[in-house]
Amino acid sequence: MWGLMNVIEFLTNVDPADIAGVYASRRDYYDMGPLSADKVLEEHVKPFLGVLGNVEVISSHDEVMFGSRGLEVGKPTVSSQLCRKSEIAGYVPAVDDEQMDLLCEMAAEMSVEELTEAMRRVWENMPERYSYVFSDWAEILGCELVVLDLDAEEQAELAEDILWELAFNGTDPAQRSKTVSEIVESLERDAEELSSLVDAAGGDVAAVANKEAAVSLEELREKYGIADTRTQEEKDEDLRLMMVDELVCSIGLSRAIAAVARKFSTSA
Questions:
Q1: Residue 145 φ then ψ, to 5°
Q2: 20 to 30 A Cα–Cα from 191, which one of 16, 158, 221, 267?
Q3: What are the tens digits of pLDDT across the range 103-125?
Q4: How far is the CA of 10 from the CAs of 20, 24, 69, 247, in angstroms?
């Protein structure tokens, strides 16, 4: 079962104390410093919900938000992504429901090669999804949100994930707008610089990509003295578990998108 509702309607129907508990756990997970759920509630969640409550939302746009369940190294997790309505229309998964059920049952035991092939099949014709950390609050809060069979605890996780994304560039509207503008300007400068490099290389994108390749994780660890004490077997297993997480999340998202596509087609 799934439901379709406005994002801000969803946020205001989840207990703020439950959201604060999830947020406090996330801070601890990312080593951002311990903060009690009560303090999070009073200093972060309530003030931020108050700010969002004053936003005049825009409801007529092309995005739909999806809240989907998955696994993160064996631990259940819920996250949110956007898809465009125009890309959802007519979507039919490349993998049918019976095959999806089987993949979910087998995922934890699959090899990296098997997971890679399963991911390829699930993603074969799935509409693109994207983050909304740089999006205008008025548009995001006016989105329709698909809540796919989530219990109360998972709905609190979804609400926290949405607030986390919205707060990524700050919770003060004026400062956030300034920060986002600066980031966009920086990205535009980087794009112009990259375009110039490609032109100078005679259009050889591969040559520029190799020259401007990002620093590897191993190089960063060496530079900052962060030792990776895992064995190669442990690294391989961590990679496999991340792929299990991504496969299960993708199957949940695929099902949600297909359900909304069917709703749109019957209501058209």
A1: -115, 130
A2: 221
A3: 999 999 999 999 999 999 999 98
A4: 16, 20, 17, 26
